[in-house]
Design brief:
InterPro entries: Ribosomal_eS1, Ribosomal_eS1_arc. The protein is α+β, with helices and mostly antiparallel strands. It has helices at 51-55, 88-94, 130-149, 153-161, 164-173, and strands spanning 16-21, 30-36, 46-50, 63-73, 76-86, 100-109, 115-124, 179-191. It has 5 helices and 8 strands. The termini are far apart.
C-alpha cells in the first residue's frame, strides 16, 4: 500500500531565485540564476561561463571563466573572479602529430597587488633541446612579469582573454625557436590584496 504524502509547506515555495552577475570588469552582466532559501547560502557558490557568453564572440567559446559569489543584495548575487582556463578540447586541437610543447607555471603579481598563478604552453612543430626550452620559459616568465606589473588586475585579464598577451609572448619567444603558437592556458587567483584601511 502506497504511503500518503505528508502534508505541509512546500519547501520550494519558500525559496527565491537570485540573478547572478559577472564581476565589474565584465560590466556585471547577468550570467545565470541560482535558488536558495537564504542569501547566506548563495555566498560562495561557483558558476562557470565562457567569454562567448559574456561578449557574444563565437571565437572565444573555448575560454572558460569561473566566478564565485561574494555579495548578495536583494535578489542579485555578485561574483568575483577565481579562474580562467582554456577548454581541453581546444588545447587538444592545437597539438598535431610530431608537435611538442613547453609547459610552464609562474606566480605573478599585478600592479594593484593581485597574486596570480599563470600556466602557459608554447607549441612547437619539432622537438627541441633542454637549453632551448629553458630559454623559452625565461622569455615567457619575463614577459608575464612585465605585463602584470604594468597592469592592474582587470587590465591583465583583458590582455589574457583578448589574446594580446599570447601574441606578445609569441613574438619574443619565437626569436629563440620558430614556434607554432603560445597559449596562456590558465590564470588562477591565489590571493587578493588586503583591503585598504579607512583614513
Amino acid at each position: 500500500m502506497a504511503r500518503k504524502r505528508a502534508t505541509g509547506k512546500d519547501p520550494w515555495k519558500a525559496k527565491l531565485w537570485y540573478t547572478i552577475h559577472a564581476p565589474s570588469m565584465f560590466e556585471k552582466k547577468e550570467i545565470g540564476e541560482t535558488i536558495s532559501d537564504t542569501p547566506e547560502k548563495v555566498l560562495g557558490r561557483k558558476i562557470e561561463t565562457s567569454m562567448k557568453e559574456l561578449t557574444g564572440d563565437l571565437k572565444k567559446s573555448h575560454i572558460k571563466l569561473i566566478f564565485r559569489v561574494n555579495e548578495v543584495t536583494g535578489e542579485n548575487a555578485y561574483t568575483e573572479f577565481i579562474k580562467q582556463e582554456l577548454s581541453r578540447s581546444y588545447l587538444r586541437s592545437q597539438i598535431r602529430r610530431r608537435n611538442s610543447k613547453v609547459d610552464s607555471i609562474f606566480n605573478i603579481t599585478t600592479k594593484d597587488g593581485y597574486n596570480l598563478r599563470a600556466s602557459t604552453s608554447a607549441i612547437l612543430t619539432t622537438r627541441i633541446q633542454t637549453s632551448q626550452k629553458k630559454a623559452i620559459r625565461e622569455i615567457i616568465n619575463q614577459e608575464l612579469k612585465s605585463i602584470s606589473t604594468n597592469n592592474d588586475f582587470a587590465q591583465f585579464l583583458e590582455e589574457v582573454t583578448s589574446g594580446k598577451m599570447s601574441n606578445e609572448i609569441y613574438k619574443k619567444a619565437r626569436k629563440i625557436y620558430p614556434l607554432k603558437r603560445v597559449e596562456v592556458t590558465k590564470i588562477k587567483l591565489i590571493q587578493k590584496p588586503a583591503p585598504k584601511e579607512a583614513a
